[in-house]
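for the recovery benchmark. tokens below, seq after
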């Protein structure tokens, strides 16, 4: 095969010409780039707006305007890689199209000059049968949205021009193959016709001829296909310019197709960005056996191994690789077949990877032995690959530790903490819910917590399936390998408790019909009965039929290295939300620097404890209540002592009882009778008490510090339990550091009432024990009123810290019930009303705005007040960045999210340092300065 170096290609000469032409016209890129503001009236500045860019007018930093694909094409051209000439229509023009709403291209969009440049660079003419130029029209958003939007290839063909292609290439088969591809794609993408009848035409002809492969089709066969396609859709415009306008419009429209909207909402990509459109001269991989097309990665995206990796298909177009009709060959075979082309590709991938400082995903086409680069972007990779690549690149000297740390997708890091599904295993997906708690579990399905416990005691692995879980399910959750619920969001009981236990959980699987009486689970067509086996993946939210192989992700040296980078940099402390000694131990082993939230009510979920709690609640007199409180106090003291021991030397924040009392009471008649028997009271007393405590809106009801206001004796018991546990440990030579936190505070007056009671009980207990120690008292900030009056709150005598409870704060700021919002949040996201679930990621504008107000007021009053966050957002990377930016002292999250929060906190610090260094002109020039600046001094 003939192979020319890229320097010989007419396109390179053309690119240089085009650069000169721009210079001659005085078109400096900066002076041309006048972006349209989304809300600017389109007509006002229409003539000064640059809507179309040639490749030599853009660069990699213009992703917002030219899309990722467009910006990287410009950059590859700048690096003098062989890129087919192209022009890019900006994302702003796409927004302008939507704003104008005429259904036509913006009147001011004019690409004739750039089309002419493409013609000059290729020596071909668009729409001219003598030497026709065909183009591809592709989408390209600022963030990668693989496969979500539309593309039209081989555009610029009609009956006359196809003859021109035959004349210029002498290859009739290629000409008709290309023409049929165009008719098919245009009909599908631009005119929205069904693909199937088109596919049937090809199948029929293949059947008639007794052949199977596209490669076996001859020129006359493709010609026949073209004839049939034209009958199926006689309305494809024959004017190439009309085709081009139609395709650009279709790409603009595809920004708002269902797939794209859903993808954006899952990935937090704003609807307001729009897509760019690249119009590029076609390079052909399907002309003959000297052509081909492929996809390559500069390193293995699955394992991270530093080995050029990819696949190619000879004599094929790009869409054949994607469609999977033929099995591509490994690049090694290309190296054998076309050593020079391979060597050139190999050189470019190395160059691009070094240049971008990241693993590259490359699309290329080989046309008659000549290589063309069609796309490069940072490649998607597994969690395992991402840490290996980051660590290797630091060792190789390509990246600093800070830069490498910023390449790590923090929220994928739970891969290392839980057994995960073998990606190669066969799976049958039967349902999908929210990825509530990572890991994967396989087991027999059971429908009650008692069954889960009983089966687990027999050594069986079970998955507990519930409509939703309540505190009474806790033993079942503990016994099960995993939990699947039909209702509930990311902060539902099931999700929070499962994450706390490090137990895999899929919540909010709304398609699941759970009948716990009949003990059946229906998921679409699949009906399962008790003890049928399923597998759930808490990292993706998927539910599978039967067993799926799992593998454990053990201690990984690269992962540990990445954690160390983060720890060396971060300013935020990472604490954990833990309610038991086991959780505390796990969290500490994962790097937790203390407990930011110990939900004391969780200590009463065990069966022998809940009965003491229930007896206390149904007490009719204070005296009786005090007796039961004493039993409860003993449990609590033991637990707290053990937790303090596990976290010895580190802070442990114990929160006073929060949930509404009725949550602890039994609901069924049998259970009420059992309680009545236990406490020796008539059933009617228990029933009355249950009825009395019922609430219409428990989340806004009798919970949190309101319990302390009405029943001070409960608070006193808890404060004494903390103090006496700490005193016991201290006497045993340990170093306990307990703190007490008051929940659901709305006014400083509540604290003025409660804090002195806590102080008195603590002082008394410590005095009795003969121990002198400090037990700081703080408040949760989880209601808007508390935030608005944060100065009064922190100004309250005895209040030493505040911890934002962003679960309740999100609930109360949005007015979305945290347990019910699952029913509509998905629809909000689909319709672009929400870019993300505010219960999963902090809403910086609304909830975050209120947090900022609170901080401002609090810091003005008491500058040194310790500030933390203990809602579920404490383990979510983007939220952690926000808390870092607001100067929080710590985040507190579920044990299994601790490493994620450590990495995210390190990344937030690294980002700040790199930005600062870039501002100081240090970035890249002085890696050592950045390193030094990032080191902690303490
Ligand atoms: C919160 O509301 O954010 C919080 C941590 O408390 P809980 O989830 O227990 O209500
Ligand atoms: Mg709360």
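predicted aa per position
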């Amino acid at each position: 095969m003939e192979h020319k170096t890229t320097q010989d290609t007419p396109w390179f000469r053309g690119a240089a010409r085009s650069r000169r032409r721009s210079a001659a016209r005085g078109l400096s890129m900066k002076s041309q780039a006048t972006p349209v503001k989304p809300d600017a009236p389109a007509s006002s500045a229409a003539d000064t707006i640059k809507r179309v860019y040639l490749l030599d007018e853009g660069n990699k930093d213009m992703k917002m305007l030219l899309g990722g694909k467009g910006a990287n094409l410009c950059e590859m051209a700048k690096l003098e890689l062989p890129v087919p000439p192209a022009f890019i229509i900006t994302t702003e023009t796409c927004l302008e199209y939507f704003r104008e709403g005429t259904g036509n291209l913006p009147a001011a969009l004019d690409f004739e000059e750039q089309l002419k440049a493409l013609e000059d660079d290729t020596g071909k003419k668009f729409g001219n049968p003598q030497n026709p130029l065909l183009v591809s029209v592709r989408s390209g958003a600022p963030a990668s949205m693989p496969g979500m939007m539309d593309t039209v290839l081989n555009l610029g063909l009609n009956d006359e021009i196809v003859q021109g292609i035959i004349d210029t290439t002498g290859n009739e088969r290629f000409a008709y193959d290309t023409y049929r591809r165009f008719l098919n794609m245009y009909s599908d993408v631009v005119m929205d016709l069904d693909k199937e009848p088109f596919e049937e035409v090809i199948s029929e002809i293949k059947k008639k001829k007794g052949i199977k492969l596209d490669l076996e089709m001859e020129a006359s066969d493709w010609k026949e296909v073209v004839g049939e396609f034209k009958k199926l859709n006689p309305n494809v415009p024959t004017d190439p310019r009309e085709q081009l306008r139609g395709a650009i419009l279709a790409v603009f429209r595809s920004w708002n197709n269902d797939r794209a909207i859903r993808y954006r909402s899952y990935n937090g990509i704003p609807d307001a960005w729009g897509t760019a459109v690249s119009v590029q001269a076609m390079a052909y991989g399907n002309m003959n056996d000297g052509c081909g097309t492929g996809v390559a990665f500069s390193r293995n995206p699955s394992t991270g191994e530093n080995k050029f990796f990819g696949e190619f298909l000879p004599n094929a177009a790009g869409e054949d690789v994607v469609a999977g009709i033929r099995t591509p060959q490994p690049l090694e075979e290309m190296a054998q077949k076309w050593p020079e082309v391979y060597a050139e590709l190999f050189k470019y991938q190395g160059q691009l990877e070094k240049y971008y400082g990241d693993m590259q995903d490359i699309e290329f086409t080989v046309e008659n032995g000549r290589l063309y680069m069609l796309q490069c972007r940072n490649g998607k990779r597994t969690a395992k690959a991402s840490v290996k690549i980051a660590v290797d690149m630091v060792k190789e000297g390509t990246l600093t530790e800070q830069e490498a740390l910023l390449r790590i997708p923090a929220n994928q890091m739970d891969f290392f903490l839980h057994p995960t599904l073998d990606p190669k295993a066969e799976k049958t997906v039967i349902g999908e819910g929210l990825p509530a708690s990572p890991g994967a579990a396989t087991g027999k399905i059971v429908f009650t917590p008692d069954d889960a416990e009983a089966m687990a005691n027999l050594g069986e692995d079970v998955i507990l399936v519930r409509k939703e879980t309540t505190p009474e399910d806790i033993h079942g959750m503990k016994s099960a390998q995993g939990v699947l619920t039909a209702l509930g969001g990311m902060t539902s009981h099931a999700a929070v408790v499962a994450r706390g236990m490090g137990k895999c959980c899929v919540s909010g699987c709304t398609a699941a019909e759970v009948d716990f009486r009949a003990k059946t689970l229906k998921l679409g067509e699949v009906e399962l009965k008790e003890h049928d086996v399923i597998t759930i993946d808490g990292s993706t939210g998927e539910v599978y039929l039967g067993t799926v192989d799992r593998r454990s992700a053990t201690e990984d040296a690269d992962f540990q290295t990445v954690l160390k980078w983060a720890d060396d940099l971060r300013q935020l402390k990472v604490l954990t939300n833990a309610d038991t000694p086991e959780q505390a131990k796990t969290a500490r082993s994962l790097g937790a620097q203390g407990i930011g939230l110990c939900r004391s009510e969780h200590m009463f979920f065990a069966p022998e404890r809940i009965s003491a709690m229930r007896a206390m609640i149904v007490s009719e007199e204070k005296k009786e209540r005090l007796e039961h409180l004493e039993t409860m106090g003993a449990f609590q003291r033991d637990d707290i002592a053990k937790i303090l021991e596990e976290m010895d030397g580190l802070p442990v924040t114990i929160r006073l009882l929060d949930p509404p009392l009725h949550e602890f009471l039994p609901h069924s008649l049998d259970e009420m009778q059992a309680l009545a028997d236990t406490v020796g009271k008539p059933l009617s007393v228990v029933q009355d008490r249950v009825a009395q405590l019922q609430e219409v809106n428990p989340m806004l009801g009798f919970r949190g510090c309101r319990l302390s206001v009405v029943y001070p004796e409960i608070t006193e018991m808890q404060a004494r339990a903390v103090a006496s546990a700490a005193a016991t440990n201290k006497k045993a030579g340990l170093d306990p550091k307990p703190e007490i936190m008051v929940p659901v505070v709305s006014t400083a007056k509540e604290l003025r009432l409660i804090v002195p009671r806590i102080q008195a009980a603590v002082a008394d207990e410590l005095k009795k024990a003969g121990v002198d120690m400090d037990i700081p008292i703080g408040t949760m900030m989880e209601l808007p009123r508390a935030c608005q009056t944060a100065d009064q709150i922190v100004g309250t005598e005895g209040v030493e810290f505040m911890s934002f409870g962003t679960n309740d704060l999100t609930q109360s700021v949005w007015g979305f019930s945290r347990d019910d919002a699952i029913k509509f949040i998905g629809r909000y996201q689909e319709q672009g009303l929400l870019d993300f679930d505010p219960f999963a990621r902090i809403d910086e504008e609304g909830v975050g705005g209120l947090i900022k107000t609170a901080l401002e007021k609090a810091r003005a009053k008491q500058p040194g007040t310790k500030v933390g966050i203990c809602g579920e957002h404490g383990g979510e990377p983007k939220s952690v960045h926000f808390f870092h930016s607001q100067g929080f002292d710590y985040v507190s999250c579920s044990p299994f999210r601790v490493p994620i929060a450590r990495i995210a906190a390190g990344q937030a610090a690294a980002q700040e340092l790199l930005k600062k260094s870039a501002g100081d002109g240090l970035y890249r020039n002085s890696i050592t300065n950045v390193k030094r600046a990032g080191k902690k001094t303490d």
